[in-house]
Amino acid sequence: MKRQTFNDNWIFWKEGSTKKQTVTLPHDAMIHEERRPDVPGGGAHGYFPGGKYVYEKRFTAPDEWREKTVSIEFEGVYRNSKVFINGKEAGGRPYGYVPFVICMDAFLVYGGENVITVTVDNSELPNSRWYTGSGIYRPVSLLISPKEHIVYQGVRITTLSFAPARIRVETDASVSDEAKILVEILEQGRVIASGSGRNMELAIPDAKLWSDETPYLYECRVSLKKQDKVCDTVTEKFGIRLITWSSGGLLVNGKQTLLRGGCFHHDNGILGAACWTKSEERRVRIMKEHGFNALRSAHNPASKAMLEACDRYGMYLMDETFDMWYVRKSKYDYGRDFKEWWQADTKAMIDRDYNHPSVIMYSIGNEVSEPGKPEGVKLGKEMISFVKSLDASRAVTGGMNLMIMGNYAKGKGQYDNVDKEEKKKAANDSKEPKNASLIFNMMATVVGPGMNKAGNSKKVDMVTTPILDALDIAGYNYASGRYPLEGKLHPGRVIVGSETFPYEIYKNWEQVKKYPYLVGDFMWTAWDYLGEAGLGAWSYTGGMPFNRPYPWLLGGTGVIDILGNPDASCRYAETVWERADKPVIAVRPVNHPGVRVSKSVWRGTNAIESWSWRGCDGNKAQVEIYAGAAGVELFLNGKSLGKKRLKECKAVYKTRYAEGTLRAVAYDADGAVLGESTLSSAKGKFRITLKPEETVIQAGDIVYVPVEITGENGIVESNADEKLSVSVEGGTLLAFGSADPCTQERYDAGSFTAYQGRALAVVYAPQPGKIKISVSGEKLGTESVAVTAV
Questions:
Q1: Is the pLDDT of residue 449 over 80?
Q2: Per the database record, which ranges form the Glycoside hydrolase family domain (predicted)?
């Protein structure tokens, strides 16, 4: 099979508009819409409207394709897509998060021009509880094969054992029985094992095993031969790793493994939902650098690029199917399509995931209320059985909120209000359906950490036990109060904290280390995202700590912001996980003197690693120190602010801001120094500093360019933000923005105000050559940097 990228020169327009433009895929139409306070999706969608969109691609099908099979693969189109080839409907998908393939053989005009038209309907909002994006937001490829060929995703590789290493390779090919299938295992281009047959086993000599610590990948090359001639070839990357689980723990290749996890949404920040390979790779790399070894795709299947990045970096992945089943959480969401499509969409995810060693668990849903009643349990068991029929090598889990299921069993489910109130409206009740996500967030804010114990009662245990015991690993969302109980109540049950508050990481991690049946913790969230506006943000302008009004944009729950910068919560988790080699100093913003901050239950602090707040001398300052030590001492400009014992790896100091240097020294119980670190203020005149993450890239790829406002000593200044403008020569600016959670500025406008001294540009290189990126500010002048595309 020959895979050919098919992302260039698509014509795009919004239905009803005469304005057409040429775009390169992946493309998010929603991020280019005008945000408004009155859009029906509201804060859940970040106040972006949806719409109906059209994509058109013209191309020539060469005559030699007559003897081939040609298909088109869409990795993800949001939402309700229909694909037309030369005016004839050829396929499509309601769900926006799974790949689908269309064979084009019956539609093509060979030797002449062909037209592919894709219509996308994302006009009915709300259809999700977060920012979805719109359009062909994941890549598109052509798949060109001989008539007799290995079918799409037709090679499946399974690890049977790791000591010694044995694998099974199964091949599905559209050929007659006399065809021969040759399987070769390659290590750095060298064949180390081979065999033949559709279903065969191979021993791998001196195998290097795949894990989060050793993400070693092999290649499996499968060739289809007929009369000693190779007809078709498919090459798959894979890792040798075996997963087992029991109440004794989660084992990867026989080694007990604890999951240092985080949840993430599918958007790429300032790029919107556009799924560039480098964007996904960058996210995984940054999260791995900050101590994570596991991710949960919330709450939909991850992209192929994300899977590949997790494979390369050694990141375990819980890939999740759906946020809802048949009980809708939003008026127009996938719940309307669930009963007809859940099997096909689940299969699409598993078929794609099968050869990726990073995928260790499949989640059948997030916080679904249905299993609170018998019919929901029946469905859940049917889904588990279906997943197992497709892949028995991985654990099946689900992000189960015990409180939600318990309430649903009592007839008090907040997520069935959509259906109930639509029935009322049909009976001439003028009230609009309540926002189910808003109801849950409101409840979580009021209950707070108490939600962790809302599932502890015997009644809730009786309601939830049928579905939890049916899962291989029971995922608990905000139910850490159950962790100590399950060893006695349910001695055979294996559990994972599938969604937890980040600031509770110390308590949760102590339990992960203590209880073998608790295999890990996934905080909400590892990376910030668009939509659910202000859910986790701390605000100095007041208001409810959830569903904040326009122009709030970001969720604010991420311990890494949308630009990729870690905050104090992230660095605290690193410390708790014993991944930080020296004390961490974090400071709550000191540039809001006398203003009471409005807090969110999802965030324990808004501190960042900065002691550079120009013009704030004398303001009250709260300094947080994190260290895996017995005690710490903090110095300000050489003067000791005292020694403190660390409690739960944390100590807090209150002082007054003064420019200069903070220094923290960590000590063991005997007073010996374990490590020290410093934070200093920016000095001298401020300037713009550009730090492209690469100086040489491939043509057709993108480059990330972090932008900082720094002093002459190179230190980022957190209190000198101003509007910056970007210009690009030789390339295309895709996006420019900051991590400001509340703004009316646009990521596609080429200008944006820095936030706490930082911004980010993403530039596309359409062809080889030099790319010059320039950033200017009224008080800061202009700085430029060059990147080469080859």
A1: no
A2: 688-785
